[in-house]
Amino acid sequence: MHSETQHLTSTTSILVRMVEDLEDFQEHPDEYLVDLYTDEKTAKQAWLRTGERHHFTYNDGVVTLAWEGIPLLGVPEWDDICGIWHYLVIVVEGYLTDGRGEMSFPDSPTPIILERIRGGALVTIADTKARVEPVTFCRELLDEAERFWRWTDQQDIPVDSGWALTEIERVRSKIPWR
């Protein structure tokens, strides 16, 4: 992690009740979600309770991302939170390798795109687009992905955080630091 000012912020929350009314979910997300980092005990209990039937590898939730205060991702987009973080890392790798990384959410056609544009990069998530400084964006997105996977490790969530952290380091090594 880097000590300079962070441009990208994130939260990761797990669903603690089924979304049956999308409008209510959008108006009252706190009634549906628990933030992994601010309420670790409740989040861990929810993960273990709802994840058991999927061998703990699939849990619906919301990842929020904001670039310099501009919301890029959040409610109402929810999906498997491990999948979202994994796909975000794949998008960064595609960008660093080919100048364009693209995936869809694990269980929906919502696009996640990071592509080179003149003088920077453009991130597109669903209908939201933002110009970003690519090295900083990639570095900070990988830092946030690492934070998520380290949380699963610290909470003894039975997912393959070791593999995910190794992948993050592998992708991080492709960032042009100079």
Describe, in plain words, how this protein is organized in 3D.
The protein has one domain (8-172). The protein is 39% helix and 27% strand. It has five helices and nine strands, in the order E-H-E-H-E-E-E-H-E-E-E-E-H-H. It has helices spanning 22-27, 40-51, 81-98, 134-154, 161-172, and strands spanning 8-15, 33-35, 60-67, 70-73, 79-80, 100-104, 111-117, 120-125, 128-132. The strands form two sheets. Strands 1, 2, 3, 4 and 5 form a five-stranded antiparallel β-sheet that branches. Strands 6-7-8-9 form a four-stranded antiparallel β-sheet. Helix 3 runs antiparallel to helix 4 (134-154) and helix 3 packs parallel to helix 5 (161-172). The longest helix has 21 residues, at 134-154. The mean pLDDT is 90.
